[in-house]
């Protein structure tokens, strides 16, 4: 009986060989660029020497992780990472949802498509371009913002060198770049809702706002849960590429995050073992956050990724 089942499965595979062939490049990409580099995790347990390589470097066990726990600088970096990520979640996560609900109510298709195009275009700009743009806008000597401040009688502010402003700038620029793109995802979720539900709500006397609350939001909930779980999983990422292109030593106190810390320790000070230990810590915590978020969502919302 088992042989018969295996035979049927093999018959299905043979009849869909073209589909499996399409999957092979993706599997090869994952194997070469995602799984093969995991061999480098061994560096976190060594006193790695770039000339001796992984095979010839001294094995030190958990020494790098003990160094991590004792490092006061790391705790400051961890605090910065959590604060910046939480600011981005609390402030930026709800905005695309509201924007998608509002755009769904626009009836003029030309106007609706024009707004969608304008708000998601920044997503396709690299952080190098965006940081250069905002460095010029916020320049204390020639920037538009400081020009307005001086015109109003104030003193110019060095925004990108001031710890009081740097986190706010990170949140604002991240929102400017990604809110429109995230809104498109939620608009697609709304588009999958059956129109009969809106018609039934209208017959029951529900206005547009009530339809948004009672029809659109519940229909978006699976997508919202999925996006939120994925966002929780990247809690310790905090936008490394963004911060690398915008920060400087004057704002390390509030802007240095785990990703930039790994970059500075690994490439700047060539402490590869310690930076690998920090990166492994980051990955393990991110994995645990995704699993925990999925478990809590399944328990309380009856929805989950798996």
TrEMBL record:
Gene3D superfamilies membership: MetI-like
Entries under Pfam families matching the protein: BPD_transp_1
Homology family: Belongs to the binding-protein-dependent transport system permease family.
Transmembrane annotation, as ranges: 20-45, 82-103, 124-149, 169-191, 212-232, 272-296
UniProt KW keywords: Cell membrane, Membrane, Transmembrane, Transmembrane helix, Transport
Topology of the protein relative to the lipid bilayer: Multi-pass membrane protein
Compartment(s) of residence: Cell membrane
ABC transmembrane type-1 domain boundaries: 78-293
InterPro entries: MetI-like (IPR000515), MetI-like_sf (IPR035906), UgpAE/MalFG_permease (IPR050809)
Lineage: superkingdom: Bacteria
UniProt name for this protein: Sugar ABC transporter permease
Main localization of the protein described in the UniProt heading: membrane
Signal peptide (UniProt feature, chain positions): none
Keyword Cell inner membrane: no
